[in-house]
Amino acid sequence: xxxxxxxxxxxxxxxxxxxxxxxxxxxxxxxxxxxxxxxxxxxxxxxxxxxxxxxxxxxxxxxxxxxxxxxxxxxxxxxxxxxxxxxxxxxxxxxxxxxxxxxxxxxxxxxxxxxxxxxxxxxxxxxxxxxxxxxxxxxxxxxxxxxxxxxxxxxxxxxxxxxxxxxxxx
Length: 170
Prior knowledge:
Elements: E1 7-21, E2 27-29, E3 33-34, H1 37-40, E4 42-49, E5 53-58, E6 61-67, E7 72-78, H2 83-88, E8 93-94, E9 100-101, E10 111-120, E11 126-137, E12 157-163
Antiparallel strand pairs: 1-2, 1-3, 1-10, 4-7, 5-6, 7-12, 8-9, 10-11, 11-12
């Protein structure tokens, strides 16, 4: 009997920017960037499948059913937002003085492979790679006065479209 495998926690969160795409749709990836746990580590995510289901009925019976798999729409919550995320995920400009500039120019967000590593109860772990992911909307901003201990971390939610790679549909 196989050992039960339950996901316990996100252990690493990283991304590899897509640096180019050839004429057949095959991407080239840059180096993997692992987010530092104390700045932008992963807290939770939800990946909802996207695509249409086609059902064909004949004589009152479903005779065919298939899904047009278009990947996932993913919500990812991280701790705070580090400069790397502002630049690499949102395409913002981080200046030498630490200020961040965001432009309303209608350009597409950068594409990347999004990598989520999770610890599992069997000790082996699980790695999920979304090979063509990009932000689909800016994350909300909030702030407030801290109370008590003075610790009031932000947990921004990032919205991604994770689509199949064009060259292999993975």
